[in-house]
Write a structure and sequence with these properties.
The chain is of the alpha/beta class. Helix content is 37%, strand content 18%. The chain contains 9 helices and 9 strands. The strands form 2 sheets. The protein has a 7-stranded mixed β-sheet with strand order 1-9-8-7-2-6-3. Helix 4 packs across helix 5. The two termini are 18 Å apart.
């Protein structure tokens, strides 16, 4: 029996079915574990201590559900082709992965990609992040938006919408810009391309966000191209702690690269590093979370809520 949501306790009807961890884990059924510990070590991001237990109890049931959804969508597409007498190419199933900075989106997206590619009906799964669609730093600086990097207005939304429209139309070899976290900027002239995948995973902080005033005449939303979406959730205090921990870890690794945008932080003391990380979190990431990211949570198909140890404690699945 699934626990009632807070909304249901208040007398309202929730659009979600809520599952505690053990209840969700039971939905794995006989889905085999196809990832090894080495695979997991390679896939997880800095600061995200995900375990094989998490994969088994959370991501295997999710991959099973998504495999069923994709198969049903593929069947509907074939039925429509027969009805129309058409011979269009396949249309990718698109999954959005959203949530705050430091919540673990990249790890979730990578694990889903690995698991879903092992299902027989979806052998080709590709992943794109919306970081590549950020406006170049030079333009952000010119428009006074460097402190708003990651906010909806800091993206080249027209290019992102064109990319998703082409992919969803079944076009082959559709390319997107590439972003370097090392230099903290879009890489001029560099692209990454998707070529007729069965599933495309689109990961980014604001992929479920509504359009901004700069986009007022643009239709549709980015999320209108999604067949399914996942929102990773956690308390603000946890997210801040994880962000600071990751910042400390990067100070000892990536920040020491002479090419790093954040090289200036590499030689700070622990105390100074924590102060800088908390300042960046509060001024930029927390504001973005409150203004733009968290309000999109109710738009997600699935909400994964994390506890203090990064483990997912509750799953909320939108009712069909």
């Amino acid at each position: 029996m699934t626990p009632p949501s807070a909304l249901e306790n208040d007398g309202a009807i929730s659009p979600y079915r809520h599952f505690l961890r053990a209840e969700w884990a039971s939905l794995r059924a006989d889905t085999p574990l196809t990832l090894t510990l080495d695979d997991l070590t390679r896939l997880k991001s800095v600061g995200d201590p995900i375990s094989l237990e998490e994969v088994i109890e959370i991501y295997l049931p999710l991959s099973r559900l998504l495999a069923l959804y994709v198969a049903a969508t593929q069947g509907l597409f074939k039925a429509t082709q027969r009805f129309l007498g058409a011979e269009d190419g396949k249309v990718p199933y698109i999954i959005g992965v959203a949530g705050s900075v430091a919540v673990g989106k990249s790890t979730t997206a990578q694990i889903l990609r690995a698991l879903l590619s092992r299902w027989p009906n979806t052998p080709k799964v590709e992943l794109i992040t919306t970081d590549g669609f950020l406006l170049p730093n030079a333009l952000l600086e010119r428009e006074g938006l460097m402190e708003k990097k990651g906010f909806p207005e800091s993206y080249d939304n027209k290019t992102l919408l064109r990319f998703l429209s082409a992919v969803k139309a079944g076009q082959r070899h559709v390319c997107a810009p590439v972003y370097s976290h090392l230099v903290y900027d879009v890489v001029p002239g560099e692209t990454t391309c998707v070529d007729g995948p069965d599933i495309l995973i689109v990961e980014g902080v604001n992929v479920l966000a509504a359009r901004t005033s700069r986009q007022a005449k643009e239709i549709p939303f980015v999320s209108d191209f999604f067949d399914f979406s996942v929102y990773l959730d956690a308390g603000e205090d946890l997210l801040e702690r994880w962000y600071v921990d990751r910042f400390l870890s990067l100070r000892e690794t990536a920040f020491r690269d002479p090419r790093s945008y954040f090289r200036k932080y590499a030689d700070l003391s622990d105390e100074e590093t924590v102060r800088v990380a908390k300042d960046i979190w509060t001024r930029i990431n927390l504001e973005n979370l409150r203004q733009n990211i968290a309000p999109t949570r109710p738009r997600a198909s699935l909400i994964l809520t994390k506890g203090a140890d990064h483990k997912i404690e509750e799953v909320a699945l939108r009712k069909l």
